[in-house]
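Appendix B, example 12.
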Amino acid sequence: MKEFINTSFLTFLTLFPILNPPAMAPIFNELTSHLDEKRQYKIAYLVSKYSFYLLSVSLLIGSWILAIFGISVMIIKIAGGILLFNTAWKMLNEQPKISEKQKKECIKIDEKTAFYPMTLPLTAGAGSISVTISLTPSKLSLSLNTLSEISAIILGIFLSSISIYVFYRYSSYIIKKMDYSKQQIISKLSAFILLAIAIKMSLDGIKYVLL
């Protein structure tokens, strides 16, 4: 049970900085500002739901797709760790922001565009998908331990999705209460945790390949 909880918590800590709901909340609020509160809440729910489905499917079939190309999960762990390290380093040195091109492409978000582009790629993009795949157990089987580990990871994905919903749903309230310095504190703390997880993930993959 302890290992199950630890795996779920580690999954959440790994995905949360990549998804970065606190930094994305102001963007969500801006892109849905033309809608009433009820519709904003609905879109927040849809984005969180779509993010959960997208990442869960990536976890379940990602390793199978990699097998087709002859790539092991441990190699993805090393690559995912490097990607996480790069993301964390950028977060530590600059404020995450949406590009002007993306703003023009998705200036108005509604129910029809809740999946694309609000969920993919703005909320759960290539980085979070590749990292989710890297969380796949190294030895896949129908054993109880493997099924338990996968279930724990899915629970972690679910918790991450809930965090998306909470920050997006209350985005306007959060923006009023959270000034720039508080946003920076959350962002930098998340980046530091992500940096540590990235190093651990890469070292685990390298250790497995060398041994």
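DSSP finds ten helices and no strands in the chain. The two ends are 29 Å apart (CA to CA).
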